[in-house]
Design brief:
CATH topology of the largest domain: Rossmann fold
Number of domains: 2
CATH architecture of the largest domain: 3-Layer(aba) Sandwich
CATH superfamily of the largest domain: Response regulator
Number of helices: 9
Number of strands: 5
Distance between the termini: 49 Å
Largest sheet: 5 strands, parallel
Strand order of the largest sheet: 2-1-3-4-5
Length: 209
Amino acid sequence: MTEAPSKTVDLVIADKSPLVRAGLSALFKGDERFSLIEVLSDGRDFLDAVARSPFDIGIIGWDMPTVHGRNILRTLRERENAPKIVVYTGNAAPDVPRQVIQLGGAGFCPKGEPPERILETVILVSKGRMVFPFIDLSHRETDPFDTLTARERELLAGLAEGLTNNEIAGGLDISLNTVKFHLKNLYGKLSVNNRAQAVAWFLKHTEGR
């Protein structure tokens, strides 16, 4: 059993999913080791919370609206007395934990883990530990392009050609909702927030190949 911290751990949670926010709120409010300060829905609000008042640990999603998780970590690296960050995500891209640790995150917990795992992760981080799944740092970084499916690569090429979602759907003979689903996964794997950033990533990537 993880030893309890000597004081209550002040938390701020930020996640785009209402269900995740509700679940985490209930989990941490029901545990006297924690004091839940705020529950937010996007990255910009989280950075505003950091600027307003100090707290111990932030639990954030990776694919966040307005400010992506990786950009939250980059911003906090430049801030003195920033909270420690635990990334809690359903993004299955294998390189995400590596990015989190390289950007100064203190912990990583997949959303598929049992609820007690995120509690344990936060407690350990509050005690100065870093909590991550095994990462073989002797290997080169995974190229995000290698994690894309064939369909996601087709969509990325369509974006680079300036096609609209409707044009992509018609060209690939799939529904508009399917296009949106694939684009959401695509943005997550490339750690971008929108089609313009995805196109910029694609152009930079293809120039280097």
